[in-house]
Amino acid sequence: MEILLVILIGLLYAAGIYMILRRSLVKLIIGLILLGNGANMLIFLLGKIVKGKPPIIPESGKALEGLYADPIPQALILTAIVISFGLQAFAIILVKRAYKVVKTDDLDEMNATDEDL
Amino acid sequence: MSSPFVVLPIIFQLFLAVLLMFCWTRKNLQKLVSVVGSVIALVISTVLFVAVWEHGIYTTQAGNWVAPFGITFVADVFSALMVLLTTTAGLAVSVFSVGSVRNSRIEFGYFPIYHFLLMGLNGAFLAGDIFNLYVWFEIIIISSFVLITIGGEKAQLEGAVKYVTMNLLASVIFLTAIAILYGLTGSLNMADLSLKVAEIENRGLVNVTAILFLVGFGIKSAVFPLYFWLPASYHTPPPAISAIFGGLLTKVGVYALLRVFTLIFIPDSFLITLISAIAAITILSGGIGALIQNNIRKVFSYLIICHIGYMIAGLGIYTQTAIEGSIFYLIHDIIVKTTLFMVAGLIFKIKGTYSLRLLGGFYKEYPKLSLLMAISMFSLVGIPPLSGFWPKLFLIEGSLAVGNYWLVGFILLGSFLTLFVIAKVWEGVFWKESTHIPVKMQVKYFHELKPLKRQAMVVSIVFLSLISLAIGFGAEYVIQVAARVGSSLMDPQEYIQAVLGRSI
């Protein structure tokens, strides 16, 4: 399981960075989404995976016993997913507006900010 | 000491932002609420700073979950100082916004988003939990995304694409670093991390994590070679937004770097050499970049990069004197850079252009305003006794003490480049014969504005210029503040004890 996740995370990061480096605006967004998912999977992996042991205190006991899954990485991932969801929604709208105003989706042609006055 | 009032600067900005949303259609009421609210926020943060100065560190544990399990908010002298500076610059920009931001932008919620940005800034400074710091960073960037695009001009959108991409990338790198750090230590509380990271035997992995933090925060604070988004975007939004961005946003990155690299990762000789090299090249590339620009806001954008180098230099020297220099520079730079961008905005409102080639004759036409603008410009250069002089003295002294002579050279060179650039701006805008500037239809000129709006713009610049003068002439007191922050950063025992409630 861990080794599969390691490969997956590596692929997500690599694909994300590759897509960011492309010139198209849409590919840029896809790259950012892939990178965000890669980071979330990394938190999941590094939170140490424990199978089938939810952190629930049994009715008979007062505290958690033995090995159990760490709930914090899940809380972190949930927060990170919500945040990246909001940011990506903004980025997609921004790209749409930028495409309408600048009339190109080629990042190399977006150089009005470098123009001399 | 534990007190729930630590989060008041955050809650108050949230309250203001929500209140402003309820005044959505009433633009004049929004302006009033924003200015009055900013004054109250300044009072709150002053009270917080005085309390922390006198009684030591204040903490609060969210939901009463004892550290390191809950989310902690910490107000030590450094955090309280940053909150104070944020609200000071925040008040000035709020007043400046009343005069300079167009109604069409206010209609799309300029003021609520502005206060959400200030909330994020205060939160980032008060957070005592590394993941919480990440969340505040996200609040800052989403608010700044809206502010940079509000109005939707072509240059704004193009600048925003670059700004958004680099900031999202920085966030992902920051999150990756947090993931690895959590995997290594199983903790997120910064005071707890300080203890746990020191015990890890696998130093290689710790150094990799440290480098990830350096890159993530480096993008935010615009250090070489990660700064290219800044001159591509900071000159595109309206002047009030540039002012708050130029004054505060890059400084959050610097704050995070100073915090993380004094508390969690104590730099070894490799990191110290790396950071001082980055600082030197940042100073050089920012200064040289500013030389060739024609747009005054772009000149100032490159000067931001140049002076970020000074603040990083203190970390690269890593002695108490040098860190004090960095803190002093941070205080000076937040005030002066905010003023400079407001000055650029005022020049634009009067003349209708940012171009150095077209501008001219400002001194002849507006001698009093020119003298006012001179204060902030020459403070930036650091002509004694103005505020930029003292921190450089500390940095050079610290650098000489550790025998880092080439960094001294770069600090002096950066100072000289800044002088040259400011002299060029002064010559181009104020002394040169005025040329004919074509009148733009879409620009609302200064003389067309109502007297109240004109006064708002001038008053906010006067306010910050006076503070900048006070920092220069009252350097004795500012040095005391910087010294206390410096000593608390170099010896974080007090911080750790205040958060964890036990000695080590």
Walkthrough of the structure:
Chain A has helices at about 1-20, 25-45, 70-100. With about 120 residues, chain A is an all-alpha fold. Chain A has one domain: Helix Hairpins, CATH 1.10.287.3510. In chain A, helix 1 runs antiparallel to helix 2 (about 25-45) and helix 2 runs antiparallel to helix 3 (about 70-100). With about 500 residues, chain B is an all-alpha fold. Chain B has one domain (about 5-500). In chain B, about 60% of the residues are buried. The model of chain B has no long low-confidence stretch (mean pLDDT about 90). The interface between A and B is large, with 40 and 43 residues.
Provide the descriptors you would attach to this structure in a database record.
heterodimer, A: 117 residues, mainly alpha, elongated, B: 504 residues, two-stranded antiparallel ribbon, 21 helices, 76% helix, globular
Task: Give a short overview.
The complex is a heterodimer of chains A (about 120) and B (about 500). With about 120 residues, chain A is mainly α.
The percent of residues in helical segments of chain B reads: over 70%
* Low-pLDDT segments of chain B: none
Strand content of chain A: under 5%
Q: Tell me, briefly, the overall form of chain A.
A: elongated
The protein's oligomeric status is: heterodimer
Mean model confidence by pLDDT of chain B: 91
Q: Reading side by side through the largest sheet of chain B, how are the strands ordered?
A: 1-2
- Alpha carbon gap, first and last residue of chain B: 17 Å
CATH architecture of chain A: Orthogonal Bundle
- Structural class call of chain B reads mainly alpha
Number of domain units of chain B: 1
Q: What's the CATH class of chain A, please?
A: Mainly Alpha
Strand percent estimate of chain B: under 5%
Instruction: Assign the CATH topology of chain A.
Output: Helix Hairpins
Main sheet overview of chain B? 2 strands, antiparallel
Range of helix content of chain A = 55-70%
Number of strands of chain B: 2
Low-confidence stretches of chain A: none
| N- to C-terminal distance of chain A | 57 Å
- Work out the helix count of chain A: 3
